[in-house]
Amino acid sequence: SPSLAELSAGKGMRFGTAINTGTGSTFNDNNYLNLVREECNVAVAENDLKWQAIRPSPDMFTFTGGDALVNFAQTENIGFRGHTLLWEDETRYPSWFDTYDFGADPAMEAERLLTEHISTVGARYQGQIDSWDVVNEAVNPGNGAYRSSPFSRNLGSMEAVLDIAFQTARDTLPNTQLVYNDFMSWGTGNAHRDGVLTLLEGMITRGAPIDALGVQSHIFAGTGNFGGIDEAAWRSFLNDVTSLGLDLVITEFDINDQNLPADIATRDGLIADYTTAYLGLMLEYSQLRDVLCWGLVHRYSWMQNFQPRSDGLQKRSTPFDDSYQPTPMYDAIAAAFEAT
Ligand code: G3I
Predict the structure, then answer these.
(1) Domain over 4-338 is classified CATH 3.20.20.80
(2) Does the Cβ of 149 fall within 6 Å of ligand 1?
(3) Measuring CA to CA, how many Å separate 182 from each of 104, 131, 137, 144, 338?
(4) Strand, helix or coil for residue 339
(5) What is the per-residue pLDDT across 198-227, written as a single tens digit (0 to 9) for each?
(6) In this structure, what DSSP letter does residue 314 have?
(7) Is-annotated flag, keyword Hydrolase (predicted)?
C-alpha cells in the first residue's frame, strides 16, 4: 500500500516526523530511520537545533547534531524543517543567559546576539532546511499576553523580538518558509488563541516577513471528537489566521491518551477517531502545507514523560508501536490524506 509520503504528496503536501540525536535516540535506531525512509518526505529536529543544543556558551556554536540530521535528510532526498531559531519561553533559554552581561547598551547587545544567532544558524543550513520555526511559543498560554524573556526585556517588547528575528531570517534565507510555532492550548478559554492571533495580526500590520503558523497539534484526548478543542472556536481561529494570508503547518502532531481506557484495542480505536476528526478538519484548509508527527514510535515519544497515565501503562501517542508496526492511528492518517 502507498506510504504516507506518497499519500501526502498526492495532495501536494508532505508527511514527516521529528528525529533526534544522542544516546538512545531515534537517530541511532536503524529500524526507526527505516520508517522515516519509507513513510516520510520531510523531517524536523526535535531538539538538536535549539539554543540549548547549538549554543552551549555565548561565543560557541555546536552543529554536530544538526549536521547529522540535515545530512541524513539530504542523503535520503527528503525535506527538512528547522526547530527552532528562538524559543521565547525563558525557561528554555540556555542557562548562561542567567548571568550574561548585556553591557552598557543592553538593547544593542540583545539585537547583536539575536541577529548573530539567526544569521549564523540560518546560513549554515541554507538550501538544506526549507522551513524554519523562527520563533516558538512567545505567548503566555494562561492569559494570551506576550511572555517575558531576556530578549523582550532588553529590546523593550516582544514585537521587537519578533520583527528582528523574522527580518534576520528573511534576509539570510530569502527562499525559506518562515513559521511562528505555538500550541494554542484550551485550558483558559480562548485566551491563548486570541494572543496568538494578536501576535500574527501585529506582524502582518508591521510588515514583518512571516509565511505560516505552525500548529503544534498535541491533541488531548478528552471530551468529544476533538478532545479539549471547541470545534467552532477552532475553525473561527483558523479562518482568522488564513484570512491574514498565512499558510498552516501541522508541526508536532500526537495524541495524548492519558485518560483513555487501558484496553489497547479500545484505546487505539479512540486514538484513530481523534486523528480522523482532527486531520479531517485541518485538511479542509487548502493553506495546510505539511503534517509532521512529533515522533513515530511510542517509546521515543516525549508523551511518555509528560502527563503519564495513572495506571502506568505506556502511552500510544504515535502511529507506530514499539515493534515498528503501524497502529490504527497510522491507518487514520493515511485515510485522511486519501479522502478528497
Ligand atoms: O540529552 C540529555 C541527556 O544527555 C540527559 O541525560 C537527560 C537528562 O534529563 O536530558 C537529555 O535532554 C533532554 C532532551 O529532551 C533530549 O531527550 C532534556 O532534558 C529534555 O528537556 C528535552 O525535552 C524536549 C523538550 O521539548 C524540551 O526541549 C523534548 O524531547 C521535546 O520533545 C520537546 O519538544 C517540544 C517542542 O520543542 C516545542 N513544542 C512542545 C514540545 C513538547 O514539549
Answers:
(1) yes
(2) no
(3) 34, 15, 5, 12, 27
(4) coil
(5) 999 999 999 999 999 999 999 999 877 787
(6) P
(7) yes
Check residue 229 and give its pLDDT: 85
Tally of CA atoms within 13 A in the half-sphere of 53 that contains its CB: 20
Pocket test of ligand 1: the residue of 27, 44, 47 to mutate, having most ligand atoms within 8 Å of its CB, is: 47
* H and E: helices and strands count for the chain: 11, 9
Protein residue with least CA distance to atom 35, ligand 1: 46
Delimit the domains of the chain by residue range.
4-338
Measure the N-to-C terminal CA separation of the chain; round to a whole number of Å: 18
Ligand 1 in contact with 2 (CB < 6 A)?
A: no
* 22 Cβ below 6 A of ligand 1: yes
Angstrom distance (rounded) from CA 179 to CA 84 = 10
Give distance in angstroms: CA of 18 to centre of ligand 1. Answer: 12
pLDDT in tens, 33-56: 999 999 999 999 999 999 999 999
Average pLDDT, whole number, for the chain?
97
pLDDT value for 187? 82
| 252 Cβ closer than 6 Å to some ligand 1 atom | yes
Work out the average pLDDT over 9-29: 96
Give the number of residues written for the chain.
Answer: 340
pLDDT band with cut points at 50, 70 and 90 for residue 120 = very high
pTM of the model: 0.97
| Amino acid making up residue 93 | Y
- Give 3-state DSSP helix, strand, coil % of the chain, rounded to 5: 45, 15, 40
Asked if 172 and 138 touch (Cβ cutoff 8 Å), the reply is no
CA 247 from chain center: how many Å? 14
Q: What pLDDT, in 10s, does the model give residues 60-80?
A: 999 999 999 999 999 999 999
What's the ipTM?
Answer: 0.94
Q: What angle do CA 184, 189, 195 make, to 5 degrees?
A: 50
DSSP annotation string for 216-261: --EEE--SSTTTT--HHHHHHHHHHHHHTT-EEEEEEEEEE-TTS-
Whether the predicted pLDDT of 188 surpasses 90:
no
